[in-house]
């Protein structure tokens, strides 16, 4: 029975490693995207703002958990292949911690991060970045890149540029229609960034819970593997004790 547990344990560890790599990659991507946006804000206004916002914290939480899961999974693969009791016990101990941490992070993301406070933080950040274009020329280029990348225009739409010319970042260069017509079909960046932020928090939280479920299955298999190895040793010991002692003639 132990021979069946080993490949199952290896497959589950590989699966949770793949899921963790994906979660870590998405977390890094979102943090970079969010930082590129928060860097456009009024620095003097947020100089003394030491508040912690969930969209800024959750990517780090998910990243740390992902790295932890990867390390524990490698330990699990080694324990399953080598069959060493100490490695399996160490794996079970740390895997139990991982399960609690991943599940708690997922629930925390859904309860605390997927809320209106995230919408307020992200929308205020976008509006503040847009307002900085009037005083900082470098923000014009950076915000234009944001508009091109997310296919949005202004904060609430092309109507934000009524006082001046609509920038090329709001236009679709591949279309033959005029820039004003192309920009008028785009949503404001607030209407785009806010749902994207919510989507990231929701999906990564569900991903963290999914990793916890896979780790729970790995924990059950690891316990069965440990018990089967112990029973095998007990059986061999019992058979050895039952053998009659052969004395030399």
TrEMBL record:
> What are its GO cellular component terms?
plasma membrane
Using the chain's own numbering, where are the disulfide bonds?
A: 152-189, 153-171
Q: Which UniProt keywords apply?
A: Disulfide bond, Membrane, Transmembrane, Transmembrane helix
Q: Does the keyword Transmembrane helix apply?
A: yes
What InterPro entries does this protein's entry cite?
Tetraspanin/Peripherin (IPR018499), Tetraspanin_animals (IPR000301), Tetraspanin_EC2_sf (IPR008952)
Residue ranges annotated as transmembrane are: 12-32, 57-81, 88-111, 200-226
Main localization category:
membrane
Query: Can you say where in the cell this protein is located?
Result: Membrane
Its placement in the membrane is given as: Multi-pass membrane protein
Which family is it part of? Belongs to the tetraspanin (TM4SF) family.
This protein is called Tetraspanin
| Source organism | Diatraea saccharalis
């Amino acid at each position: 029975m132990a021979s069946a547990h080993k490949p199952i344990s290896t497959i589950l560890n590989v699966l949770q490693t793949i899921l963790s790599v994906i979660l870590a990659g998405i977390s890094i991507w979102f943090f970079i995207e969010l930082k590129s946006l928060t860097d456009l804000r009024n620095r003097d206004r947020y100089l003394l703002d030491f508040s912690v916002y969930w969209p800024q914290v959750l990517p780090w939480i998910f990243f740390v958990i992902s790295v932890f899961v990867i390390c524990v999974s490698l330990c699990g693969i080694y324990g399953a292949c080598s069959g060493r009791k100490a490695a399996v016990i160490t794996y079970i101990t740390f895997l139990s911690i991982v399960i609690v941490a991943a599940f708690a992070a997922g629930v925390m993301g859904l309860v605390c991060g997927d809320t209106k406070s995230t919408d307020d933080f992200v929308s205020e950040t976008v509006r503040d970045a847009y307002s900085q274009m009037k005083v900082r020329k470098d923000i014009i280029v950076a915000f234009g890149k944001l508009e091109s990348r997310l296919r949005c225009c202004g904060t609430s739409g092309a109507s934000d540029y009524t006082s001046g010319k609509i920038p090329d970042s709001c236009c679709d260069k591949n279309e033959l229609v005029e820039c004003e017509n192309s920009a008028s079909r785009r949503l404001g960046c607030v209407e785009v960034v806010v749902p994207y932020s919510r989507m990231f928090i929701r999906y990564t939280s569900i991903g963290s819970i999914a990793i916890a479920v896979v780790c729970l299955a790995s924990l059950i298999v690891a316990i069965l593997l440990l018990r089967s190895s112990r029973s095998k040793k007990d059986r061999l010991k019992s058979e050895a004790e039952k053998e009659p002692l052969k004395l030399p003639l």
